[in-house]
Amino acid sequence: MERSGSETSSATETRASSAIRARGRNWGQQVGVRRGHKNKKRPCLANGVTGCAVIDKKEIEKELDEVQRSILLALSAKDHEKIPGKLWLQKEVFLISNNDAGLSEECDFSPYLQGPYSEELEEALVSLSQLGILQIEGKHDGKISLTNFGKVVAADIQKKTAEKQLSLIEDIKQFLNDLSEDELLTYIYGVYPEFTTESVKKSKL
Predict the structure, then answer these.
(1) What is the pLDDT of the chain when averaged over all its residues?
(2) What is the pLDDT of residues 109-148, one digit of tens each?
(3) What's the distance, CA 157 to chain centroid?
(4) CA–CA separation, 119 vs 116, rounded Å?
């Protein structure tokens, strides 16, 4: 993965890593126990799942749940920089949720093939894509970014989010976004070993 400019300098990476590690174990480790998948049905925000009519952003924002909002905040950070793929999104929101008990409960992360994984997060990603709020490059797992409409919706959510939370999300994305897949998993597995029990890559790292 390409890295450029001062954003990826060793000094910046060290500061971001240190900040995350310092918060790490205080970020709500209660997510280690599976609480049961809620299989919550998200409301339809438009006239049908496909071919949706254009609707007001305020109507959409009002109906978005906490998991969907967390995705928009992650995608908005670092000046809307794309997230490399679903693996990175899962891990970034995982770290965000460890500082937010409500989001942690909604995401319900559990050990999976590549560490902490949330079915709720995956469903939220699909729903936001169907609404035209975000886009995923390629067929399944390309880079993820906000559409122009998504940026408008996300901007309103940012205005209602505490500065401390926005700063935390910025730090997390700053650090994780620039890691390769192996670097990302090595970091997550090292800090959260309780989420490696189902991993298919742990022995290869």
Answers:
(1) 81
(2) 999 999 999 999 999 999 999 999 999 998 778 999 999 9
(3) 15
(4) 10
Residue position matching structure tokens 């122009």: 148
SS3 114: coil
Output the six-digit token pair for 135.
């886009």
* Tokens coding 45: 């925000």
Spell out the long-range contacts of 10-18 with Cβ–Cβ below 8 A and sequence spacing 24 or more.
12/174, 13/175, 13/178, 16/171, 16/174, 16/175, 17/175, 17/187
Two tokens at 76?
A: 């908005």
Label residue 30 by pLDDT band (50, 70, 90). Answer: very low
User: Which is it for the CA torsion 195, 73, 124, 40, positive or negative?
Assistant: positive
For residues 138-165, average pLDDT: 93
Q: Find tokens 């000094």 and name the residue.
A: 11
Question: Measured between alpha carbons, how far is residue 96 from residues 74, 109, 111, 182 in Å?
Answer: 9, 12, 17, 20
Give the span between the Cα atoms of 102 and 121, in whole angstroms.
14
CA 133 – CA 149 distance, rounded (Å): 6
Contacts of 61 (CB under 8 A, 6+ apart): 153, 156, 157
Between the alpha carbon of residue 205 and those of residues 13, 118, 176, 196, 200, the distances in Å are 20, 22, 17, 12, 10
What gap in Å lies between CA 47 and CA 68, rounded to an integer? Answer: 19
Q: In the predicted model, what is the mean pLDDT of residues 176-196?
A: 97
Q: What is the DSSP letter of 50?
A: S
Look at the alpha carbons of 32, 169, 133, 58 in this order and tell me if their dihedral is positive or negative. positive
